[in-house]
């Protein structure tokens, strides 16, 4: 069976590289599946975010929603999914010259995911609610004095 996989053309979906969200998650340890340095990792990335980033740069991307990382113990929907990316063409050359390895793709995705509109809007909304909460606590403290 391994011989047939090696003989299959690189354009086959089975030959695409797999990227699970756990590979880029800064909440995971290396033993739990993180594959990039923690300072470059992202907080709880999703498979759709990884797909968006890779498709935007020009990769041939396939999202498999119901797949799960084997080391992931949490069965929640947010941890599900795997992204398959065509890294190399049939002749063995990289599809995109700036991404010759799977690690370069993972580092790019981790660098770009925080800049997504969905991430920046969520962060902006939570900052405002935190500020309102702090203001309420300060007001209560002043009344007691």
Order of SSEs, N→C?
HEHEEHH
Strand fraction: 5-15%
Rg on CA atoms, Å? 20 Å
Percent range of helical residues = 25-40%
Q: What is the makeup of the main sheet?
A: 3 strands, antiparallel
Structural class: mainly alpha
Describe the overall structure:
With 145 residues, this protein is mainly α. The protein is 39% helix and 8% strand. It contains four helices and three strands, in the order αβαββαα. Strands 1-3-2 form a three-stranded antiparallel beta sheet, with helices on one face. The longest helix has 28 residues, at 117-144. The radius of gyration is 20 Å and the shape is globular. The protein starts with a helix and ends with a helix. 22% of the residues are buried. The model is unreliable at 126-136 (pLDDT under 50).
Short description, anyone?
This protein is mostly helical and 145 residues long.
């Amino acid at each position: 069976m391994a011989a047939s996989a090696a003989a299959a053309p690189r354009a086959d979906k089975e030959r695409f590289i797999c990227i699970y969200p756990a590979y880029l998650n800064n909440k995971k340890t290396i033993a739990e599946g993180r594959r990039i340095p923690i300072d470059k990792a992202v907080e709880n990335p999703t498979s759709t975010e990884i797909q968006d980033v890779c498709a935007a740069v020009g990769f041939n991307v396939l999202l498999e929603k119901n797949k799960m990382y084997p080391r992931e113990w949490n069965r929640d929907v947010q941890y599900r999914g795997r992204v398959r990316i065509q890294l190399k063409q049939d002749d063995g050359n990289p599809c995109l010259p700036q991404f010759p390895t799977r690690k370069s793709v993972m580092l790019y995705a981790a660098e770009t995911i925080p800049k997504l509109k969905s991430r920046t809007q969520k962060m902006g909304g939570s900052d405002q609610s935190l500020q309102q909460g702090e203001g309420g606590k300060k007001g209560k403290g002043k009344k007691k004095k």
